Amino acid sequence: MQTIAEFGKIEYVKNDRCNRISVRILVDSLRVTIPKHTTQQQVLKFIQAHHEKILSKQEKIRKRERENPTILNDNTHLHTLTFDVVFSKTNRNDIFFSMKNGLLTIEFPESMDFTTEISQKYCWNGINYFMRKEARRLFPDRTSQLAAKYGFAYSTVKIQSSKSRWGSCSREKSINLSFYLMLLPAHLIDYVILHELCHTKEMNHGDKFWSLMDKVTDRKSNVLRKELKKYHMPQ
Question: What is the DSSP track for the chain?
Answer without folding.
Answer: -EEETTTEEEEEEE-TT--S-EEEE-SSEEEEEE-TT--HHHHHHHHHHTHHHHHHHHHHHHHHHHH-TT---TT-EEE-SS-EEEEEEES-SS-EEEEETTEEEEEEETT--TTSHHHHHHHHHHHHHHHHHHHHHHHHHHHHHHHHHHT---SEEEEE--SS-SEEE-TT-EEEEEGGGGGS-HHHHHHHHHHHHHTTT--S-SHHHHHHHHHHTTT-HHHHHHHHTT-----
